[in-house]
Amino acid sequence: MGRRRQVYEGRAKILFEGPEPGTLVQYFKDDAAAADRQGVITGKGVLNNRISEFIMTRLNEVGIPTHFMRRLNMREQLVKEVEIIPITLMVRNCAAGSLARRLGLPVGQPLPRSIVEYYYKSEELGFPLVCEEHVTAFGWAVPQDLDDMMALALRVNDYLSGLFIGVSIRLVDFRLEFGRLWQNEDMRIVIADEISPDNCRLWDISTGEPMDKDRFDRNLGQVEQGYQEVAKRLGILQPGEMREQTASG
Ligand code: ADP
Ligand code: MG
Questions:
Q1: pLDDT at residue 241 tops 80
Q2: Around Cβ 153, how many Cβ atoms within 10 Å?
Q3: How many angstroms separate the alpha carbon of residue 239 from the centre of ligand 1?
Q4: Do residues 106 and 181 share a domain?
């Protein structure tokens, strides 16, 4: 492939200009950052590219719009370029992470109902929790955008909770990014970025063991194995394929 213009480099991915206007290529890196350190999770980029492809393809099939177009190779996928809304939605089914800490809830306790939180997408501010008042007063999104995002997030939660339960994984919580997609005068909000163990808390149903980026953040060890196990259970990678796929590229 010829030289493409790099548009952005983030913590987990590099964005390149896509082959047609209105498209981007997402390149998935192995880099990982925790609050206190940087590191590499070998093969993470390959696995997240495949896991996010798998999930977004299914969401598209059930009519939940996403930016995903197609996977290009081991580490890259083609997506529709969107105007990213600077708010991430965190959907929670069980207490964990900052919610458990803030409210003193036992980790793993099921919540009375799914809770959706807004976070402002600013790395320098440490992605602060915000409420609807902040979002609309500062013009990050209008109330109709928030309604659309909330409805999409709850549909994704229902769909993914079932998908993961089917492979003995509990979807504890996950973080979504959204973007505005313009088609002539019309705008619709679609799911963007990635859906992978980098932004989902996934626990084995029977043991409660995390199989996601918490293994890296909390120094639990066996980080690569967590990502591989998620891919394996979803039927994305056959056991033999795994070593060779994650080693290459
Ligand atoms: P970050 O460190 O900002 O999280 P990543 O390494 O995850 O960055 O790289 C992905 C970046 O690309 C994110 O900032 C995300 O908001 C943005 N992005 C994701 N999908 C799209 C898209 N379809 N169009 C434009 N930008 C996108
Ligand atoms: Mg990111």
A1: no
A2: 21
A3: 30
A4: yes
Does residue 4 have a pLDDT over 80? yes
Which amino acid is it at 65? P
CA distances from 206 to 59, 105, 176 (A): 26, 21, 26
pLDDT band at 136 (very low <50, low <70, confident <90, very high): very high
Please check whether residue 56 is in contact with residue 66, taking contact to mean a CB–CB distance below 8 angstroms. Answer: yes
Do 169 and 69 fall into the same domain?
no
In eight-state DSSP terms, residue 105 is P
Q: How far apart are CA 102 and CA 35, in angstroms?
A: 17
Give the tokens for residue 147: 């309604």
- Nearest to residue 29, comparing CAs of 8, 44, 50, 16? 44
Same domain, 56 and 130: no
Whether residues 75 and 164 share a domain: the answer is no
| 177 pocket-lining for ligand 1 (C-beta < 6 Å) | yes
Ligand 1 neighbour 12 (Cβ under 6 A): yes
CB 6 within 8 A of CB 25: no
User: Residue 45 corresponds to which tokens in the numbers above?
Assistant: 């980029």
Domain-located, residue 106: yes
Q: Are strands 76-80 and 129-130 parallel, antiparallel or unpaired?
A: unpaired
Domain membership of residue 157 (yes or no) is yes
Q: Is the CB of 102 under 6 A from ligand 1?
A: no
Domain that holds residue 151: 83-204
| Number of structural domains in the chain | 2
Question: Can you name the residues that pair with 203 across neighbouring β-strands?
Answer: 170, 210
